[in-house]
Amino acid sequence: APVPxxxxxxxxxxxxxxxxxxxxxxxxxxxxxxxxxxxxGSLGALVLTRGIAKPLEGLVAVADSMTGGDLSRRASxxxxxxxxxxxxxxxxxxxxIEVNYRDLESQNEELRKMDRVKEALIIDITxxxxxxxxxxxxxxxxxxxxxxxxxxxxxxxxVYQVMENNLLRQQNTIExxxxxxxxxxxxxxxxxxxxxxxxxxxxxxxxYRHALDAFGxxxxxxxxxxTVMSDREMLHPIFANLLENAIKYRxxxxxxxxxxxxxxxxxxxxxxxxxxxxxxxxxxxxxFERFYQA
Length: 294
Prior knowledge:
The protein is 65% helix and 10% strand. It has helices at residues 16-67, 82-149, 154-185, 197-207, 209-214, 232-248, 281-285; strands at residues 193-196, 218-222, 227-230, 256-264, 267-274. Helix 1 (16-67) runs parallel beside helix 2 and helix 4 (197-207) crosses helix 6.
């Protein structure tokens, strides 16, 4: 180092290792401290993560059990921190879900009991109605024979035909009620077979031919060869009911009914249309309600 006021300087010579000993010690100390901080931080994070993850895994396991139907499972609450409060809230929610589920099960059981009572009542009523209707049909058959042997006036024959049609309609209604009740209770199985839709519609038109002619209704059947696999006994009353409604609500002038069978994208489509009074939008919304009448 230079000496002030002199033309000479002092030079100190030290070994390299001795000169670098201080910085090396400081560097090593900083490295050791950093490593220690890193290790302690990792251990702390691991402990904290385990403390959060384990309770959350328990919550997930309980939720999975509840999804599988075990509503009695509850989460373990061992701390009062955020995770503990979350588990407690989850258990309160699970308690409410279980209570609501039990109430819903009880209500469903009551509905099932009411359905069984209703089905039994329908079966009893229809059985009670079948006997007198069958007797009246038999009496009409006797009267028909009498009218054949002893010609009566046209008015008497018209009255007889109306009575026969009404009784047959009542008989069909009773049979339909029985069929629906048996289907709902599992007492009747669907017996599918190949059905020619044009054929079954033509058959139904024949059954209502007298009424169609009596009211001067023109029937147009657009025939298309379409066959389906279905239960003929169940389809028949559906189509008959559509035709009967078209007759009942016919137009006062020039009444017409059109029957159409088409195939749309591999599916059979049957339509029964008429030029009668029609239905309002409100009535159309309720048309598929059971026993609804416009």
